[in-house]
Specification:
This protein has 17 helices and 18 strands. With 472 residues, the protein is an alpha/beta fold. 45% of the residues are buried.
Length: 472
Amino acid sequence: MDMQAILERQKAAHLRDGEASAALRIERIDRCIRLLRENRRAIEEAVNADFGSRSREATAFTDIAGSIGPLQHARDNLARWMRPEKRKTTPAILGLFGAKAEVRYQPKGVVGVISPWNFPVNLTFAPLAGILAAGNRAMIKPSEFTPATSELMRTMFAGAFSEEEIAVVTGGPEVGEAFSRLAFDHLIFTGATSIARHVMKAAAENLVPVTLELGGKSPVILGRSADLKVAAARVMNGKTLNAGQICLAPDYVLAPKDQVEGFVAAARASVETMFPTIKDNPDYTAIIAQRHYDRITGYIEDARAKGARVIELKPEGEDLSQQPHRKIAPTLILEPTDDMKVMQEEIFGPVLPVKSYQTLDEALDYVNGHDRPLGLYYFGDDAAEQETVLSRTTAGGVTVNDVIMHVAQEDLPFGGVGPSGMGSYHGLDGFREFSHRKAVFSQMKKDIGPLKMLRPPFGPGIRKMLDGQIGR
């Protein structure tokens, strides 16, 4: 497939057809919603095949319903978002004589989308909500780790959109590298920070603006006032959803020293309730590929070898060593040290380090001593402590008394900061991310005195005005 030729056709179509109307944008979004609804079963089967084992319910919830919601939100609001935004003139007196200032939201043109394997459908369609709402066209490069799902999406889009509107390009790393070098009008990449560095470098060759949705080590801070039973249930639900293969999965827990054992007991009880069995349980997701399975089990063995207490939360006697689907039981690593790999790299699996602290300052210093995370989670009923956590830490987003859920709020921006990402999307913020904010100033029609005195020859009028502006 000639990616350059597709890009050129899309750019030419964008110029030929002009700015898409609100009606056309809505119709394109409705086509996406229909694709998701009509292909629900095929999507569930393809994702399950790619993972080896992933529940239909998890896919329906995260990838299908989780995509329809953002698309509907964009569809229902885009006409309002498209309206020019009035701004004040400078100096204000110009406005009194008829000058006007406004911001117009103009489609950028063609947006490239590099989507990942962990939620292959959602992290393709959710960005499309903002991309299409802003009036753009799109080229999509899905992950090679989910070949069945990627091929299904290619077929789905080809049946509902012309290649001038949305095109899907499949292939391995070499295709992804070439894709990231294309002269898009904007590029959004969702994936690992290490790969993002290469993507951003490639995009820089054409000065393509980028949105990077990455990850990192998102911490959970348990306050002393936290309800351990509720906190553990919500943390472990977030950690076992998709077997922890989520950019926003809680990556480690900071707990008061005297509450660590209580958290462990509550975590064990919550996992036993959710997963009475793991090995043949269709509700428990497998690790996507052998190399990721080896990486995650390597973290566990490295921590055990370096003295950590390792607790597998699996049914008594259930052996996961001989199985076809690469499942790893939820695993707690107690009192990890920073020389352990599990504390140095994003885990992206069902392994959860639990580290104790004596004072809140100690916990905050630990968080602030590392890269700014994509998400941060605080549990507790102490309003003053909560405000301290919010004001003294920096993260892409925060959920209080739960994990991950801020990503589901369509009216909140979603994005990282520093190594966890760049730019944000969802809802209005997505519309603006994929739009060019064009400043438009309309000068007053009459050539009155204040305008004339700005032109030579300069006289006492402009000197008086400058003295007033600058001051003495």
